[in-house]
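ok trying again, last paste got cut off:
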Amino acid sequence: MTHWPVRRVAVNGDSMRPALEPGDRLLVVGFLRSRAGDVVGVVDPRDERRVLVKRVAAVGAAGVTVLGDNPTASTDSRTFGPVPPHLVLGRAVYRYWPEARRGRLRA
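nice, full thing came through this time. structure:
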């Protein structure tokens, strides 16, 4: 039996508006490689109890640079720097809630 590393993540706050709204629920797939433009779930490097939803700006040797789509409302790599690869949970591929906005996420 194969175990797929899929997580459910909730969007909190306005940092990803207009692409994602507070309350959106996403499926994050851990085995997909992150590329610039992807929406990802990352463990907050300042508080490992929190998960952040951000867009990948760059992938480099120092880690993954993530930014919110709404810079004035986002705490992201401009604050804490690149995220180490082991803190990237995976790529958000599907919004399952709210039902009216359900569908596949595209970069």
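cool. The CA atoms of residues 11 and 22 lie 5 Å apart. The chain has one helix and seven strands.
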